[in-house]
Specification:
Radius of gyration: 26 Å
Number of strands: 19
Strand content: 25-35%
CATH superfamily of the largest domain: Zn peptidases
Bound molecules: zinc ion
Structural class: alpha/beta
Helix content: 25-40%
CATH class of the largest domain: Alpha Beta
CATH architecture of the largest domain: 3-Layer(aba) Sandwich
Length: 456
């Protein structure tokens, strides 16, 4: 082989070295740091519409800025959209509970906001009737909360440390669609309802209640996004690939064994961590296409963040050539470390393009039995509906802790995650740099057409 003149090889070598050096930024330590922040109890399960999800959006924006990425829209790291909600005011609640034990009855009067708070809104604004009293950890409550409407007011005894209590303070907003019943769901501070004298069975509770009228409003939600700008001399410099993951989860709930925070460590703090680490690793490179890093909100409410992104795209959608969406990387089945799988893998050449890139990083691509069903279950589906080649990559399992309080950081395999994220660095680069963008095949086009026709 004839040696190339030094002037030509030097920049090439530099480029290769810098790719290695930047991949080495993906360390187990950094992966653990980011995923732990996102999934800690302080985030309260990153529920859509919560203060904690808002704080997470700011934190993610700061990571993108620190990494040295560019804003897609000048002056903001966010793509905003809104969901319908209602505002309710715990300071406007009036509640007297009457307890009947045998022939004896006793009244308990509660001070608004201090002793009683309104958790969920109601169409009805007042009443005097039999009610259900339950403790925050009561399994019966799980059923009541899922019910679309209640026949009685529901009164929940709650510790002041419980997230239910904190989130219901003063004037607060609840997203619509949670429950809009004729009767309200109220919280009373634990310790104010003493047991019946002599341990007698409580025959019934009656509530005389009134609440303020709920005020309808739009609640702003935020996708967080940043851009790695393409090489200005590239013929593909106007095109984009989107690397994404949803950063929301399902919040707090009745819980299990005293744990009421649904941390969503695997689902999807791991995917979000991958987006952050990819941004940090790839920043400073000049690739052939732009890379948009996007953390989607409200995925758990029906892919709302990605739908909004595709409905009002911040860049022309016809210039987006592929979407790599990342979901649940942290809980491989035993013996499946350093392996990942793609949803709808057989529908395009996307997975085979990625497979070649992953092989170089020692990561294997395998089949997953539910891969085609899950193709429609995450944010890539919003891009698919717009005709964009879009798949989710996952490197785990559908474990028993899925959407349970036990989806915690301690159960993640951080070494495995680190290997997968390093591999995904090469995937993002391959998608951004190769001349031909990925394309649907006949099987994929037919399957997508069939599904969309059925859902129309
Ligand atoms: Zn998810």
């Amino acid at each position: 082989m004839t040696p190339l003149p030094l002037l030509l090889t030097a920049p090439l070598l530099l480029a290769v070295v810098s790719v290695r050096a930047q991949q080495e930024r993906v360390t187990e330590e950094r992966v653990r740091e980011v995923v732990t922040w996102l999934a800690s109890d302080e985030r309260n399960g990153r529920d859509t519409g919560s203060r904690e999800l808002e704080a997470a959006s700011q934190w993610l924006a700061a990571r993108f800025e620190e990494a040295g990425l560019q804003q897609v829209r000048k002056g903001s790291w966010f793509h905003e959209f809104s969901l319908p909600g209602v505002q309710i005011d715990s300071a406007a609640v009036k509640l007297t509970l009457t307890r009947k034990v045998g022939d004896a009855s006793k009244d308990f009067v509660f001070e608004a906001d201090k002793d009683v708070r309104q958790m969920l809104p109601s169409d009805g604004l007042e009443g005097e009737e039999l009610c259900t009293v339950a403790a925050a950890g009561d399994p019966v409550l799980q059923r009541l909360m899922r019910a679309r409407s209640a026949r009685r007011p529901v009164i929940i005894e709650t510790s002041v440390e419980h997230a239910f209590w904190e989130q219901a303070a003063g004037v607060h907003t609840v997203l619509s669609g949670r429950r809009q019943a004729a009767r309200p769901m109220l919280l009373v501070r634990e310790g104010l309802l003493p047991p019946a004298p002599g341990g007698e069975r409580i025959v019934e509770w009656t509530a005389a209640w009134s609440v303020g009228a709920p005020v309808a409003l739009d609640v702003t939600q935020r996708n967080v996004m940043a851009k790695l700008t393409a090489d200005p001399s590239s013929p593909h410099k106007d095109e984009y690939i989107v690397v994404s993951a949803h950063y929301d989860h399902v919040g707090v709930g009745v819980g299990k064994d005293g744990d009421n925070i649904y941390n969503g460590a695997d689902d999807n703090a791991t995917g979000t961590t991958a987006v952050v680490l990819l941004a940090e690793a790839l920043a400073g490179q000049r690739l052939q296409r732009n890379v948009l890093f996007v953390c989607f909100a409200a995925e758990e409410r029906g892919l709302r963040g990605s739908q909004a992104f595709c409905a009002r795209p911040p860049v022309p959608l016809e210039k987006v050539v592929a979407n790599l969406n990342i979901e649940m990387l942290g809980r491989p089945e035993s013996g499946k470390q350093k392996q990942c799988w793609f949803t709808g893998a057989g529908y395009s050449d996307f997975a085979s393009v990625c497979e070649a890139a992953l092989a170089g990083a020692g990561v294997g691509v395998v089949d997953f039995r539910m891969g085609n069903q899950l193709f429609w279950a995450s944010d890539n589906a919003s891009f698919v509906r717009k005709g964009i080649v879009a798949h989710s990559v996952s490197a785990g399992s559908l474990h028993d802790d899925y959407h349970q309080p036990g989806d915690e950081v301690g159960k993640l395999d951080v070494g495995h995650m680190t290997a997968i994220i390093r591999g995904l660095c090469d995937v993002a680069k391959a998608l951004a740099d190769r001349d031909a963008p990925p394309a649907w095949n006949d099987k994929g086009e037919q399957a997508i057409e069939r599904t969309l026709r059925r859902r129309r």
